[in-house]
Amino acid sequence: MAVNEKHLDLIQAIITRHNSNSFMIKGWAITLCTLVLTVAGTWKEPIIALVALVPVFVFWQLDSFYLANEKCFVSLYSAAINDYVLKVKNKDLVEDKQVKTTNKNGESILDPETEIEITSSPFSMDFRPFQIIKRNNKSEVLKSETIRRFYLMLIAFSVALFIGLLIFNKPASNDSIKVSTKLETDSLYIKTEPLSVIINNIIKKDSLVKSDITTKKGK
After folding, report:
1. Which of 91, 101, 141, 205 falls between 20 and 30 A from 152, CA-CA?
2. pLDDT tens string 122-141
């Protein structure tokens, strides 16, 4: 069967789009993780550093999803250029999808070298039949070397900052501090009296003056 180049172009466009999404997800993971860790370092709050783990795990799952689908479309592309048939060895399939064969004695055995054919059809964009391949499975992609190292690095930064803030940002001691001070002032001390006392003194003095004048006149 002749290769349908238009079909290949459609598959290639989807592969490119998935690859771009995976790259963008990694960029967002770095950006959000850096932002949260910066806030944690600025506020000196260790618990905030652990908040960065939330977007890291979310983007790890999302990135694995896109990469797994991308690998499935790569397998679909390989099938499309081989008469829409992809031969995969039994050992390369996920465990629950491996096919058992019958030997000469009539016993069912699991031969890892047995080839399984996964078929597709012209202009088909269904990638799900290729999910049984181990390298295309999301759980396997999640544990792949490149993905695991990238996100474990972000997790390590978050945990390291958390531990660092706990060690180097201990709360200040609550013990009281005794301070000896001596206050000096050149200001004059002015004694003030209540208004009632002042009024009574004026009345008393005025009475004494009047009494003295009356006595003198009487003499």
Report:
1. 91
2. 889 999 999 999 999 999 99
Cβ pair 132, 97 in contact under 8 A: yes
Q: Which residues pair with 101 in a beta bridge?
A: 109
Report the SS3 class of residue 46: helix
Count the Cβ atoms, other than its own, within 10 Å of residue 13: 11
The CA-atom distances, in angstroms, between 207 and each of 43, 198, 200, 219 are 75, 14, 10, 19
Q: What is the CA radius of gyration of the chain?
A: 44
Crossing angle (nearest 10°) for helices 53-80 and 5-43: 170
CA angle 157, 160, 164 (to 5 degrees): 135
Q: Considering the entire predicted model, what is its pTM? A: 0.71
Task: For residue range 14-68, list pLDDT tens digits in order.
Answer: 999 999 999 999 999 999 999 999 999 999 999 999 999 999 999 999 999 999 9
What residue type is assigned to position 190 of the chain? Answer: I
The Cβ-side half-sphere exposure at 141, using a 13 Å CA radius, reads 21
Residue 129 backbone phi and psi in degrees, to 5 = -60, -20
What are the percentages of helix, strand and coil residues in the chain, rounded to 5?
A: 65, 5, 30
Q: What is the DSSP letter of 5?
A: H
- Total Cβ atoms within 10 A of residue 58: 14
- The single residue listed with the structure tokens 């790890």 is 60
